[in-house]
Design goal:
The chain is mainly beta and 193 residues long. The chain is built from no helices and eleven strands. A hairpin with a 4-residue loop joins strand 1 and strand 2. The chain is globular, with a radius of gyration of 19 Å. The two termini are 37 Å apart.
Length: 193
């Protein structure tokens, strides 16, 4: 099947002090499918995030968010509430993020979720690795828990050209089935300026 989506989003941020920042965001997404058995749907979401910097190298954050899932055809809508606690820090050439989340709603308690990501930036090379278990909207109907792993490597051939490899693996865990999607990409980019 083919998936198409349209998204409208916005973000606001305000520094509360030299170390703390409050931000808010909202988004609306409309998703449709051509072929297959997936369900067209729309979601509206919003949240608040409070960040506190311990130093120039580490920042902790706490966020709360809510989302509403509305299927295009006849069917019940569902709601999801999520609380997340996380930490960002820098060590040498690497930036790390770790977070843990708890979600409720959408037909049940989804239990604990989490995410770990790492980004290495060298003179000519960049490597990004992340793994997470999150709850998100799905064409399988309502909110589902998904396991996701992604790796991306890029190399600067020159000041105008870059090449890279992207690997992506995702497993949606619904009540009726487990849907697995794997994507691989090899690319070359050249700046014409």
């Amino acid at each position: 099947s083919t998936r198409a989506s349209r998204t409208l989003s916005g973000r606001w941020s305000k520094e509360l002090s030299e170390r703390s920042t409050l931000s808010a965001d909202g988004a609306f997404e409309d998703v449709s499918y051509e072929g297959g058995t997936f369900v067209d749907y729309a979601t509206g979401s919003g949240g608040l995030k409070l960040s506190y910097s311990f130093s120039e190298l580490s920042t902790t954050f706490l966020s709360v968010s809510g989302a509403k899932y509305v299927p295009a055809r006849d069917g019940p809508s569902s709601h999801l509430a999520t609380a997340t606690l996380g930490l960002n820090w820098t060590a040498g050439y690497m930036d790390w993020t770790m977070q843990a989340s708890q979600s409720k709603g959408g037909g049940g308690n989804f239990g604990l979720q989490g995410a770990v990501s790492m980004q290495y930036t060298g003179q000519r090379t960049q490597l990004v690795l992340n793994a997470d278990r999150q709850v998100s909207s799905s064409g399988l109907g309502g909110f589902v828990k998904a396991d996701h792993m992604r790796g991306s490597w890029s190399y600067a051939l020159s000041e105008q050209s870059n090449t890279g490899i992207d690997l992506d693996w995702r497993k949606n865990r619904s009540i009726t089935s487990n849907n697995i999607r794997t994507t691989t990409g090899i690319w070359i980019q050249r700046n014409l300026n």
